[in-house]
Amino acid sequence: MLEKNPTAIISVENVSLAYGAADGPNVLEEIDLKLHEGEFVCLLGPSGCGKSTLLKIIAGLIQPSAGSAVMDGIHITGPEWHRGVVFQQPPLYSWLSTRENVRFGLKMRKIPKAEGLKLADEYLDKVGLLQYAGHKPYELSGGMKQRVAIARALVNSPRVLLMDEPFGALDALTREEMQQLLRNIWRETGCTILFITHDVDEALSLGTRVLVMSRSPGRIIREFTTSFTCGITAESTGQARYSPAFLKLREEILGLINKQKLSSINNLN
Ligand SMILES: Nc1ncnc2c1ncn2[C@@H]1O[C@H](COP(=O)(O)OP(=O)(O)OP(=O)(O)O)[C@@H](O)[C@H]1O
């Protein structure tokens, strides 16, 4: 949970990014963002505004054209296990069992096999999949694969979890289940989460802070501090989502995003 004066684990300072030619248009422009210890930050914005690009910069998968991304005061120059990443389509290794998929990063880090297997099983248990440890990815449903991806990221005890629309491809019921699982994991581990979604309800019911981006160029235009997630349990999700405070904020954020979409349509005409 958030402290009164939380420490920034990640600082993104004045970041701009242009893909391709250096004089090409900026996808991201002058982004300033701090992720504080224990925060659950949700990033919303119209399609193509640069959410994934920003996440990839923080993950260390791409470098900004200008500005810097720093973790604990050290420049992010590549991916590393303190920052776990979960994408919408989890790239699981089809030839490996669920357990070996979860152990993969530990193996790369030369964690002894017995310890790695123990940890893999511990995290498979946390996501409710221990009985599927010997199954291959093709034997799992979409939601189960996403659980494996979460276990695989968490098994390294990352300080920051970067999630790019992880539940975007799931049906509504599974999605809600996964949200509750993630909320529980966040509460239990206290890790810092950056979570991209298109779904305003999902952002408001998970995040402690919701950021809204604009498009062309991508900038953070508004931020909202929220606390709905703190009171939500598996039984009370619906209750929170129909509260007047939730609905009011939802409407305000949807209005902001729709304004972005309308201005893009007007620019096309
Ligand atoms: N590797 C790349 N090379 C060139 N352009 C790219 C690359 N990746 C993304 N883009 C462009 O950058 C812009 C931002 O893309 P990005 O995927 O970051 O947006 P997004 O907000 O995550 O979109 P969505 O919500 O649809 O997933 C888009 O115009 C996209 O076409």
Automatic annotation (TrEMBL):
Alphabetical keyword list: ATP-binding, Cell inner membrane, Cell membrane, Membrane, Nucleotide-binding, Translocase, Transport
CDD domains according to UniProt: ABC_NrtD_SsuB_transporters
MF GO annotations: ATP binding; ATP hydrolysis activity
Alphabetical list of InterPro entries matching this protein: AAA+_ATPase, ABC_transporter-like_ATP-bd, ABC_transporter-like_CS, ABC_transporter_ATP-bind, P-loop_NTPase
Domain ABC transporter intervals: 10-240
SMART domains: AAA
Name of protein: ABC transporter ATP-binding protein
Organism phylogeny: Bacteria, Bacillati, Bacillota, Bacilli, Bacillales
